């Protein structure tokens, strides 16, 4: 699954559903809280870059980008400079990319919003970089976003809750599971509204009784037994 196909399938899901799917199959839940500058959603293969003070590394990455890739910028979480703005967003869009994810700050917010390419970042700041550091040898191979180091073998998903990284070769399986979690949650929601409480649906009273007898019983174990979905 690539580019547009992946985005179409993710369009009916959220990062929360896929994060819960990761938890269920025992994958690390590689999420980061970032703001959606343009409010859009993104799903695509990671195009990793490490930024050291100049946009040239982005332009170099675009030279070998594939349709639907997402530029994932490691700026070390710095909050003293913006590392990408509307020029980078526009060039990314023209190169066929489907979004930009920044572990750092952006600028040119209004122009980025007008371009419409989904951009996720820690926030905005007027100044660009005032430094230029040496470029590491793996600057176009890996990016560290929060505590997660990602490569071309990863897919990034982004929405209003932030971003999530998943292994590209597990995406179909994770989407299948995320869809079933979403369907369960929708069914539960559809019953809460007319008055059948979540506690009733997940037999919460039974859980409290069972936990009194066996304090090691967790709510997650109980949810699995009754096939409910809330937190995974
Ligand atoms: O932050 C930078 O220097 C890059 C920039 O402004 C842009 O892409 O428009
Ligand atoms: Mg600019």
TrEMBL record:
Question: In which residues is substrate bound?
Answer: 85-88, 107
Name any cofactors this protein relies on.
Answer: a divalent metal cation; Mg(2+)
Q: What molecular function does GO assign, one term?
A: oxaloacetate decarboxylase activity
Top EC class, one word: lyase
Q: Which Gene3D superfamilies match?
A: Ribonuclease E inhibitor RraA/RraA-like
State its Enzyme Commission number(s).
Answer: 4.1.1.112, 4.1.3.17
Record-linked InterPro entries: RraA/RraA-like, RraA/RraA-like_sf
So where does Mg(2+) get bound? Answer: 108
UniProt keyword list: Magnesium, Metal-binding
Cite a single Pfam family from the UniProt record.
Answer: RraA-like
The reaction(s) annotated as catalysed by this protein in its Swiss-Prot or TrEMBL entry are: oxaloacetate + H(+) = pyruvate + CO2; 4-hydroxy-4-methyl-2-oxoglutarate = 2 pyruvate
According to its UniProt entry, the function of this protein is described as:
Catalyzes the aldol cleavage of 4-hydroxy-4-methyl-2-oxoglutarate (HMG) into 2 molecules of pyruvate. Also contains a secondary oxaloacetate (OAA) decarboxylase activity due to the common pyruvate enolate transition state formed following C-C bond cleavage in the retro-aldol and decarboxylation reactions.
Give the protein family.
Answer: Belongs to the class II aldolase/RraA-like family.
Instruction: Please give the subunit comment from the record.
Output: Homotrimer.
Protein name per Swiss-Prot or TrEMBL: Putative 4-hydroxy-4-methyl-2-oxoglutarate aldolase
């Amino acid at each position: 699954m690539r580019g547009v196909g992946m985005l179409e399938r993710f369009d009916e899901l959220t990062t929360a559903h896929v994060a819960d799917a990761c938890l269920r199959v025992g994958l690390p839940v590689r999420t980061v809280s970032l703001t959606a500058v343009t409010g859009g959603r993104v799903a695509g293969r990671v195009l990793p870059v490490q930024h050291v003070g100049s946009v040239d590394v982005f332009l170099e990455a675009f030279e070998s980008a594939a349709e639907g890739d997402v530029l994932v910028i490691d700026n070390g979480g710095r909050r003293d400079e913006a590392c990408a703005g509307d020029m980078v967003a526009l060039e990314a869009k023209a190169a066929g990319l489907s979004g930009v994810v920044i572990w750092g700050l952006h600028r040119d917010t209004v122009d980025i919003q007008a371009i419409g390419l989904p951009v996720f970042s820690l926030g905005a700041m007027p100044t660009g970089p005032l430094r230029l550091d040496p470029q590491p040898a793996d600057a176009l191979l890996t990016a560290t976003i929060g505590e997660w180091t990602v490569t071309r073998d990863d897919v990034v998903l982004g929405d209003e809750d932030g971003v999530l990284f998943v292994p590209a070769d597990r995406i179909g399986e994770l989407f299948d599971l995320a869809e079933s979690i979403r369907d369960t949650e929708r069914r539960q929601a559809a019953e809460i509204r007319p008055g059948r409480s979540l506690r009733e649906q997940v037999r919460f009273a039974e859980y409290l009784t069972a936990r009194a007898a066996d304090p090691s019983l967790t709510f997650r174990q109980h949810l699995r037994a009754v096939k409910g979905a809330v937190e995974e």
